[in-house]
Design brief:
Elements: E1 12-16, H1 21-24, H2 30-36, H3 47-57, E2 61-65, E3 67-69, E4 72-75, H4 77-86, E5 91-96, H5 102-113, E6 118-122, H6 125-128, H7 138-147, E7 151-154, H8 169-179, E8 185-188, H9 195-204, E9 208-211, H10 222-229, E10 236-237, H11 247-251, H12 261-276
Parallel strand pairs: 1-2, 2-5, 5-6, 6-7, 7-8, 8-9, 9-10
Antiparallel strand pairs: 3-4
Helix pairs in contact: 5-7
């Protein structure tokens, strides 16, 4: 059993992954490894590494993601499901979807959704060099709505050695939310440097959410912290981007955000529970 965090508050990490050796071999990881002053491991990361990091910070549940790419699955949905089965009650999955086979992606979403082990779908646009309003995503959005699953994606600049353009919110993600008003969207990685576009999307779309993955909380932009206390209070949720960041490192200076107890509870788990229906 994981230990309780000293805040006595439930914590859900909405963005984690358990990388395979296929994932670690990708050349675009070089910039992330340089920032973290680490080297990519040669082997699959064990599930226990994530559970240990969760326990260290008192995280109860983490959402682990499949990673589909034009080169094939870097982390397959089968591998995600195996990780969930290896840590009962601690992990939920986010389905990876293959944009090169949209109808197969739809069938995969429908099939995985029935298992009860997956709570959303994630596509990382820079992997595909396709912005979210590309026609190949649209069957996936319809499948998400039918299955009652949020669509999770990456917003803001791209840390890996890929173009950042696909992470712009306006017009790309804005087009999607206009065309699919029922779709629940969770934009990961904060959205910097387009925080004004994040604010605009929060005001305009009730189903738009953001997570703080890829940021230690003390590194969040000031205007984003202001958003957490104001209009984004019920829309912003906690994530790590494990293993690039651990929950302990992310949460180390949580109190400096100046959130009240209700705001802290909403950020750490309440908003995620509502958005993902967990």
């Amino acid at each position: 059993m994981h230990k309780m965090n000293n805040m006595n508050t439930e914590i859900i990490d909405v963005w984690a992954q358990i990388p395979t050796r296929r994932f670690w071999r990708e050349k675009w990881l070089a910039s992330l490894m340089r920032w973290n002053r680490t080297q990519a491991p040669a082997d699959d990361l064990p599930v226990g590494a994530l559970i240990g990091a969760m326990d260290e910070a008192g995280v109860g549940t983490a959402f682990v993601s499949g990673w589909s790419s034009p080169k094939g699955d870097l982390i397959s949905n089968d591998e995600v499901e195996a990780a969930i089965d290896a840590a009962p009650g601690r992990l939920k999955g986010l389905i990876g979807a293959d944009l090169s086979e949209p109808m197969e992606a739809v069938r995969e979403i429908r099939r995985r959704a029935k298992s009860g082990k997956f709570v959303g779908v994630r596509i990382v646009p820079w992997l595909w060099s396709l912005p979210p309003n590309d026609r190949r995503y649209y069957p996936v959005y319809a499948a998400c709505i039918d299955a009652g699953l949020p669509f999770c994606t990456q917003i803001g600049h791209t840390g890996p050695l890929k173009s950042s353009e696909t992470g712009r919110l306006i017009p790309y993600l804005e087009d999607v939310m206009i065309d699919f008003p029922e779709l629940v969207v969770v934009g990961g990685h904060v959205g910097f440097p387009w925080i004004d576009e994040v604010k605009s999307m929060i005001r305009k779309f009730q189903n738009f959410h953001i997570d703080t993955s890829a940021y230690a909380l003390h590194r969040l932009p000031e205007d984003f912290i202001d958003l957490m206390k104001g209009e984004g209070r019920e829309r912003i949720m906690f994530g790590t981007n494990f293993p690039m960041l651990t929950a302990k490192r992310c949460l180390d200076q949580l109190d400096m955000l100046g959130l009240d107890s209700q705001g802290k509870a909403a950020f750490l788990s309440g908003n995620a529970k509502r958005a993902f229906g967990v």
